[in-house]
Amino acid sequence: MTIIRSIIQDMRSRSGRVVQDRFSTGSASAVEVSDGLSQSCWANMPQELLREVLVRIEAAENAWPQRKSVVACAGVCRSWREITKEIVKIPENSGILTFPISVKQPGSRDSLLQCFIKRNRSTQTYHLFLSLTNALHDDGKFLLAARKFRRPTCAGYIISVDAGDMSKGSGTYIGKLRSNFLGTRFTIFDGQPPHAGAKITKSRSSRLLNSKQISPRIPAGNYPVAHISYELNVLGSRGPRRMQCIMDAIPVSAIGPGGSAPTQTEFSVSNIDFFPSLPFFRSKSHRMDNSLSGPLASQKDGLLVLKNKAPRWHEQLQCWCLNFHGRVTVASVKNFQLVASPENGPAGPEHEKIILQFGKVGKDLFTMDYRYPISAFQAFAICLSSFDTKIACE
């Protein structure tokens, strides 16, 4: 283990130097950076020994912040990167978020991934963190950031993987949430196709992307992945809002035995250049069909629909309540739990599982727990839709 630790320390220092060189040259290409990494002194390690070392590191570092050692391994050289890609499992199977692309992949099948959201009222920004402990608040591992925008006819949020750069023209942009005029209906847009055959939504930004005046680094477009609607709350202020989420990119069969949800495996070309410390995502081919799995176009099953879990009446408190198992401490109309809706058949055990729960624990602090088949990006966007006041529904 002492040798492994020395290797990791050397890898981190090399990764830091690569990042500095990448930004100091400015015009350095992805190929040049990749070629530079291939000259690492660790590149010629025997494949059997290399795999054994990486397997031990991946197994030992099963939580953040130690998990950054696994990320460092992927940044050593091409051979290390390819083996790391084979060893590291997606969140659906491992329950662990490792690389940035993990926020676009479905969560764990076995348990809820615990996260929290911090709100900054003055800047209208929201930051999503992965909980590092079971406490309701800790330092957390940063995952995503969102900035609210307003227009005469709608409002919404730009979602980014960089808290310091939340603009749609940035390579760190991964999607957005947009509302209607009343703020009762929302659409979640992904910056890249969520599955093979996904159709782009025509908009001013997508039309500009076809122009030669626009940098090729701007994200590819707007792909609708979910529609959220809020309904009249017949329970009044004592009950949670009524909401429904239609997941355009996830078939209803995904929640059943043997079901699968589309899983993105890498960021698009426009996003890759902005992760110089993670050459894990670079490859010689960037064809769109290679970055996606689980095509939805050929499936005729219905779409997954998420609805509020029905609250129960608490006689002592004289109000409607939901059991958040200690993850929510402040009563709020924003609190909710979403489960799969049995739209086309009888309810089964899979319809009892909480897929997403969101609740208030402080003035500007909220917990967000999600699981398969939705991703952290989709869960974050759904939670962002609850922050606005909805006069028509309350």
Automatic annotation (TrEMBL):
SUPFAM superfamilies: F-box domain, Tubby C-terminal domain-like
Protein name as catalogued: Tubby-like F-box protein
Gene Ontology BP term (one): regulation of DNA-templated transcription
Domain Tubby C-terminal: 103-389
PROSITE patterns on file: TUB_1, TUB_2
Assigned protein family: Belongs to the TUB family.
Signal peptide location: none
Cited CDD domains: F-box_AtTLP-like
Source organism per UniProt: Juglans regia
